[in-house]
Amino acid sequence: MDRDHELSAVLADDTRYHIYRWIAERPGTDVTVAEVSAEFGLHPNVARMHLAKLEQAGFLATGFRRAAGGGRPAKLYRLSDKVVTFGFPPRRYELLSRLALDALAAGGTRDDALRVCREAGATEGRRALAGDVEPPRNRAAVAGLVTSIAEEQGLLPEVDWQDGDLCIVVNNCSFRELSGADPDLVCAMHRAFLEGILEVSTAGIGPLRIEPGGCRISCGGERCELLCSFVAGEE
């Protein structure tokens, strides 16, 4: 079985997929078999089986916590530091991010790299809108579109309206493996990709100003945050 087939087979089980999604939305947090069992209403042996398969496929990492009374230590599961990538559908922007870094290495500027990533995001937005006359004007539809596009690209976003602003929290960084040498640049590239998505997806509401939040995964945070304030235009 090739690697893509193996990974897709692991997540083909609906329960196992939702367990992985639940853990992935809590990066940096350890969970136990008992916690997974309680959350999903599973027998502990069934929960343990699903967690073992996710660990074997590289989706999860494990550790142990010593029991207070000196008994058998509890096995802990958490999201793996390794970014797991599928060949189908391809994560197009990941390839473009590497091209952007290559462009820098060949003498390009930081702005050149960000432009490549922003256009990649805009391309994904236009692809998602293919066949529609215009971008949605309803705020709930906008949030749904942004969520759908981001999830297709391997992100796990939370997209909510708060006091007229669109707040986006990304719980996993698909650029993580690229961020070691220059986290500030890689964060800017990630943000540029999301900005491209947003510029297309929110065009029916009006121009927006995108500001990064104070939390960044590549700098040790548990999530990345964006706040989108609309300069003009109403629902």
Structure explained in plain terms:
This protein has 235 residues and is of the alpha+beta class. The chain has helices spanning 3-12, 14-24, 33-40, 44-56, 92-105, 110-128, 139-152, 183-201; strands spanning 60-65, 74-79, 157-162, 165-170, 208-212, 224-230. The strands form two sheets. A four-stranded antiparallel β-sheet has the order 3-4-6-5, covered by helices on one side. A two-stranded antiparallel sheet has the order 1-2. A hairpin with a 2-residue loop joins strand 3 and strand 4. Helix 7 packs across helix 8 (183-201). The protein is globular. The model is unreliable at 85-90 (pLDDT under 50).
Write a concise keyword list for the protein shown above.
single chain, 235 residues, alpha+beta, four-stranded antiparallel beta sheet, two-stranded antiparallel ribbon, 8 helices, 6 strands, 46% helix, 15% strand
SSE ordering = HHHHEEHHHEEHEE
Characterize the biggest β-sheet: 4 strands, antiparallel
| Percent range of helical residues | 40-55%
Are there runs of 5+ residues with pLDDT below 50, and where? 85-90
Oligomer: single chain
> How do the strands of the widest beta sheet line up side by side?
3-4-6-5
What secondary-structure arrangement, pairings included, does this model have?
Elements: H1 3-12, H2 14-24, H3 33-40, H4 44-56, E1 60-65, E2 74-79, H5 92-105, H6 110-128, H7 139-152, E3 157-162, E4 165-170, H8 183-201, E5 208-212, E6 224-230
Antiparallel strand pairs: 1-2, 3-4, 4-6, 5-6
Helix pairs in contact: 3-4, 5-6, 6-8, 7-8
Short description:
This protein is an alpha+beta fold. The chain is 46% helix and 15% strand.
